[in-house]
Amino acid sequence: MIRRLSAFGLLMLAATVAPDAASACERCFGAGTDAPAVAAVSASMFALLVVISSVFMGVIGFFRNVQRRTAELERNDPSST
């Protein structure tokens, strides 16, 4: 635990001593929107959002399907009454 805190302390010290190295990327730092790097980062962020949303919707769909099938099995099971 002490070793982890020491590594974190050294990282914070380095960020304090060299703030230019700890600056944000061009997108977060507020570079002009006409820069090609900013356009590329924006496109990649959108692509990742689409992928993450697709996976999330798949998980939701799976659990809704399980819930629907469970309810259907409970309705059609004569031994449950």
Topology:
Elements lengths: L1 H16 L8 H4 L6 H41 L5
Key phrases:
81 residues; mainly alpha; 2 domains; 3 helices; 75% helix
Task: Give a concise summary.
The protein folds into two domains: 1-30, no CATH class; 35-81. The protein contains three helices and no strands. It has helices at residues 2-17, 26-29, 36-76.
Task: Describe the protein.
- This protein is mainly alpha-helical.
- The protein has 2 domains: 1-30, no CATH class; 35-81.
- Helix content is 75%, strand content 0%.
- The chain is built from 3 helices and no strands.
- The residue ranges in which pLDDT falls below 50 over 5 or more consecutive positions are none
User: What is the β-strand count?
Assistant: 0
Strand content range = under 5%
Helix fraction, binned, reads over 70%
Number of helices: 3
| Form type | elongated
Number of domains: 2
